[in-house]
Amino acid sequence: MVQDKNTDAVRINARKTDAFDIFNFQHYIGPNPYLNTGALVFDFALTEPWRSLALEDYIEVIGDRYPQLKNETYDSHAQLFARTVSQVNKLDMDLHLDLWSIQPNSRYTRIAVQSLHADTTRSVVYFVWDWFEAITRDDDIEFEEELRGLQRKFRVSAYGGPTIYALLRTAYKKGIPTFHIWEERLTQYGYGKKQIRGVATTFDCDSHLDSDFTTRKDDCKEFLKILGFPVPKGDIVFSEKEALKVAKEIGYPVAVKPVVGHKGIGVTADVRDEDDLEAAYWRAVKAIPENESIRIIVEKSIRGKDYRLLCVNGRFVAATERRPASIVGDGYSTIDELIEKENRKPARLDTPTSPMSKIQCDEAMERYLEEQGLSLDSVIDRDRTVYLRKVANLSAGGMSIDATRNVHPDNIVLAQDIAQHFRLVCLGIDVIAENLAQSWKESDFAILEINAAPGILMHLNPAVGESVDVPTYILETFFNTNEDARIPILTFNQISVKELQETIDHILLQNPNWTIGAVCRGGVFVNRSEKFLNQNYNSNVYTLLRNPKLDLIIAEYHHDILEKEGMFYDRSNLVVLNNPTEIEMMLMRDVLENSTVVIRKGDNISIHRQGLIEEYTLGEDEPLTRVYLKEISTIF
To answer: Which pTM does this prediction carry?
Structure first.
């Protein structure tokens, strides 16, 4: 076993009694000298060798929480620390953060772990450090409570929403470049003119008018009625008095919901009398945004199961049954205790990848229990199922059950007919039916509403049934392969402004209608027009790649930039290395299939292209530009 190096150095962040120290944090948003992906990099050291326990003592404790780590071998405390950080960094959410590396030095070990959200990963590192120190002192640590805090931190980040994360993860697996546009709070998939931008399942190619139209439930209902589709009878009301009148006209039971709303907030189904209606009306009013006037829908409540039909690009792809939150009695626990027990289940972690949310207790739930002659203090007979809500609201703890393979062809046609009337990539259609396996033409069936920004986790990770890979359906709407998401990228380890402009002119001569972005340490250009040079180098690359007109980008990544900031993008079509340093050689590892790499060392040239290597010597006074300009012509 290789022992960790003794630092005998002044502690950086360690306390006097600490066995370990971590310091020199650096977060990279993309490929860097340590990992070929976004990463948090830091240094790890032992304070004094005698303070730490034997490696096996740490493995035994850590292996109790993560058994798979116990079966692996480690050469040092640093390697175990890195592996533990990598595992904890997944947050028990099965996050796709698998990569890590270590580089031992004489006085410390440099550790890199794959990272998506810098603050969360940094907190993970400090938590693992606390865990190692607690093991050293033979102390306990509130592991699960600390882990929940880390989960919450990631959950509220720009990457933590279930739909956003599912799309990011799928894009990563498919090699589709993505990055977050902080100023607009959008996610961009693809570079330059190949890009698409969006928030969750809403994209910039969607019709803003159509999306707005779906929020007006009254107008949507009338439109569907014109098309001949089944919708419940009902009307819009503006007061409690009008609600009572409409309910009396159409007959109880009725459903009550705000005209403007989402996620089932303010919706009450199966309202059976005036007292229920009064409560349901004010519940709906409470859910209306402050800037909206009071408009409430009162419509006939249809008996049946609650389903979501999902269409992507006008095609039916998935169906899910949604059931209200429920508990099963054990003969001695109260409903409140059963809810608490249910909420502790791993399936209800309420993370971007968990199939169910935690059951929410509120006035609507308590009222429904009261209608059943129950309360939170009631003890439920063994094996008796008690539903806690009338509405199958997944965000309040409901259950999702995959129904995709059981949908009658007529119902698929219905969903697609509706979706094809809207210029929206994703459309969710909420229906009530006794059984989706029966045609809507021959059974009780009603369309409740349509949604322009449907969530996808219920289909991707249902509580019951098979997963439907909705993120792939969505991304393949825009990109058949990862090449469809990329523009040509030319990367240099060093290039002057003069050489950059010469390269731009060379490409424009062959492609006069192109928009070329270029950045080096001396300036930023769009074609020959010079732009503002930001001191943060990768900010310049970022602004170029988010330009929706960009056909190609040229970027210099010098040794100093790679060490300080890393790269913003990944995979180049052409890499030109002019007497590269060891760190600059990382540019060679990050290339696309069929790319070209030109390396100059002194006067010797080697060209790596499609598995072949060509070598020769530059002629007297022959510039390197002559070599790479010839190669540029071959990649278009």
So the answer is: 0.89
